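In this section we walk through a basic example: taking a raw amino acid sequence and producing a predicted 3D structure, encoded as discrete structure tokens. The instruction is simple. Fold the sequence below.
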Amino acid sequence: MIVNIPIPEEAKDVVNSIIIINSNTIQLKLSGKYNNKVLNLPFNSKDFGKSLERIEKKVKEKLTIDIHDYNKIEDTICTEITKLIDKENNEIEPLKSRVTVNKYSNDRKGELYEAVLVDKEPSFAMINENKTFELVPFIDEKTRTLLPPSQEEYLHIPYEFESVDELDTYIKKCETEGILSMYRRVKSIVSKCIDQDETVINLISIDIVFSYFQDRFNTVHYTGVFGDNGTGKSSIGDVVEVLAYRAMNTTDPTPANIYRALGKVEAGQHTMIIDEAEKVDQVPEMVAIFKSGYAYSKKINRVNPNSGISEKYYAFCQKMIIGERPLGQNIAKGVLDRTFSITTYPGKPVYDIKEIINPTNTGKAEYKTVYEEIMDLRKMLFVYRIRNFRSTIPDIDIGIGRRNKELVKPYLQLFSCSFKGEFNLVCIDCINPDTLSDIDRTTLQEIKNTFKILVDAKHVRREATIEAKLLPIIIELAIEYHKGKTITYSDLWNVIKVKFRGYYDERRPNEYHTEDFGIIYRNTISNVIQKLGVETRHRRNSTELLFHMDNIIRTVVQYNIPVQSTLTFDSPPIADSSGEDCECCERSTDAPGINTKLESSMDIDNVSNISTSDRQVISDDNEIKNKIQEYKNYNNIYRSGKTDNWYCKKCKYYGDIWFMKTHPCKGVAAS
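The resulting token sequence is shown next.
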């Protein structure tokens, strides 16, 4: 039960509020006379006398207080708690669930409350109408009470401040900082503690700044850090842990660990660093968490073993995956598709982050200075988030779509905003590149070029998949299929054995040893081609393939196969002259095709182009266009039984298929 104790007039110059939080804690918030100190005091209603002794001892330990002022506090507690005890004995109030959370914003619709430790006492910090910080001991709702974690309950490094005044000083500091200057501050620290390629340093810096605004957007990307022992993988995780938003650094976690950490109240409670993640792809439940956890609205249902009730857990947050090897392409393809992967190599950073974050003065004198710089920047990022959480972030057009858009656009949106200047909770405009300073313009260009490199690398990895290797083969067979030729699964398997580099053992006809993909099996390829737009139809002596070209084209776009033309494909089902399906008549329909222009480049905003490298076109543009357009009149053509004669239902022309494909159909009966 949480109860606000009424403060009598004679005590209001000393006390702002006294709140019974639970059966063993009273929160005392003093007035400005004592710098608005907040104290959590031990209390036990069953041992009232001893509780008063403990309260007096702790109050006098924490501050120097006038004896008369303390007596006002004690008199208020004694009077009101006695009344409450009597009331409790006569009334039974409905119980509310008590939930510990790191932050709460009513699912982004209300004010932001962030859990902090102020003078070691847990509270929620929020900015009030006076644009100053206010501490709230709990958030009371109809069915639950939300509480900030105590120091021992934190799963990450807590945000600690000496007083509310210190919080307010950071609001002033943030007024002179824009989002790009915050990025430069972070990169300055990252580059001292990480000795890797410039793209890696930029990406880590981008991720750290973005983590403080991750719950403002609906999608995030993951960052995969892979490399051999001694290449600095764990050091990258340590840097992110100390600077990113509520970064939880854990080794080989279980799904239950992640559910408990991210909770059921609101998405984005943490930034997660998954170290030693080599086995993640071997746990299907972990793969499911990663596949759904990049989107804000996704939840995972799990049955509580204690109550037997199904509960929904959030999986969304920015995640870093660290391991010696990337996740398996065949097992965790969906996770890798949401991940920008980087490879680490041995280096010599200026500072060892593990030594820097040791506050016991065991290293060089300059380590303490760097440590204080990191802690100051961490607090500034935290207050910068609260200060700008409700600012409008305008939309931008980055010129790309599908998955890459989901992984890139939120970051470029954030870094295209101007949070600099006077405190504003209304609307912040996009940055106008023409008005940027030279250093800001260079920084924005650097961020965009970083994503150019990352997206290009992601495309290269995608092009190395078995799906990308199969697509050109499928398109070639589809062209033959649309000429009227029947394509069987055996035809596809034979072409694979020719096109894929590898070794075929005649004693094992259903498997093929490839150089790039290991052993592939005849029966598993059918599962792959179904995802690419090809269906199988079983006949008595063979398995026939059906090519749905609209779906194939969409897949071609997804895998960035550069067929640089606008194509319309027609798929012929079976029909008789009356329009009803039968075994002896076949009909070719000119179904509405999808005109899809395959992109070989992408443009992000109007400042920088992100282009993929030029690649070999798989087929000549005019050749494909001619082969497809020759079916223009195929919509109303039927075959007569099992003969080679075809006729047009619309105009009554007849002849062989080659004539009927291009016959001058005018929609009227021929004379």
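Looking at the output, two observations stand out. The two ends are 93 Å apart (CA to CA). The chain has 19 helices and 32 strands. In the next section we compare this with other chains.
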